Predict the 3D structure of the following.
Amino acid sequence: MNLDRLSELRKKKNWSLQDTADRLGIAKSTYAGYESGYRRPSFEALIMLADLFGTSCDDLLGRHFDKQMELTERGSTKLTVDQRELTEKEISGAVAFIRVTRQMEEEQVL
Amino acid sequence: MNLDRLSELRKKKNWSLQDTADRLGIAKSTYAGYESGYRRPSFEALIMLADLFGTSCDDLLGRHFDKQMELTERGSTKLTVDQRELTEKEISGAVAFIRVTRQMEEEQVL
DNA sequence: TTTAAAGTACGCAATTAGCGAATTACATTT
DNA sequence: AAATGTAATTCGCTAATTGCGTACTTTAAA
C-alpha cells in the first residue's frame, strides 16, 4: 500500500519535495516519507494530496475499481462530449434516445 | 473527518457490528470505533471497507469532488440506463445524437 | 572546488490503532 | 415482569505509527 503515484504526479508538475511540502503546509521530510513509502499520510493529508494533484484518493491508494453509474443519477460527475459539458436536456434526450434504440432492437427481434 | 456513511451503509445491508467486523476480519470494537469516529481505519482497512460496501474511498472519506468525464473515454466507469449497462454501440449512438442535437440547436439560432 | 538545492534516512516525542473486556441498551421469550 | 441473549458502546493497555527536526548524501551549477 504505497502511494506510488505521488512521485510521478509531482514530477509531472516539476515540483521539488520542498515545493510540494510547502504547498501542503507540512515538512519536507514528511512529504518525502509519503513518496518513499517510509511514512503514510493521515486522511487529512491524503485528501490534501488528492486535492493538490487533482485526483482521487482511490487513485492515490492504487485502487481502480469499476464504478457503475446510472446516467440520470450522475451525482457530481460531469459528462462531456467534445470537451463540452452536457446539459440536463441533452442528457435526458440521450436517455430517451437509448430507450428508443433498445425498444427498436427488441421489436426487430420479435 | 469521520466516516459518517459507514453506519448508513451497514444498516442498509442489515448487518450487525459483529457481522461486519467478521466480514472484515477485525474485532467488533475496532469496527465500532470506525463508525463512532473514535478510531479510524488504516488504509488497508479503508480499502476493505470500500470493497465490502461497494463504494469508493473518496465516498467513505466524505470527499465528493467534481469529476469530469468525456463520454467516449469512460475508463473503468460503466454507464447504465434503467439499470442496464450501455453497450459501446449505444454510447456512440448517444454521442452522435448529442452532436446532432447541438448542431440543430446552433442552426436554429442562426 | 565551493556552494546551494534536492533528495534520503533516522531518532525522538507524541499520538493512535487494534484488541479484549466490561458495561449498557435493546429485544424476545417465558 | 424477570430472564435471556444479542447488539452496541466505551475504555485501558500495548504496540505501532506519525510528523518533525536534524543530519547525511547526492546532484548541479558557478
Q: What stands out?
A: Chain B has a mean pLDDT of 93. Chain B has two domains: 3-61, 66-109.
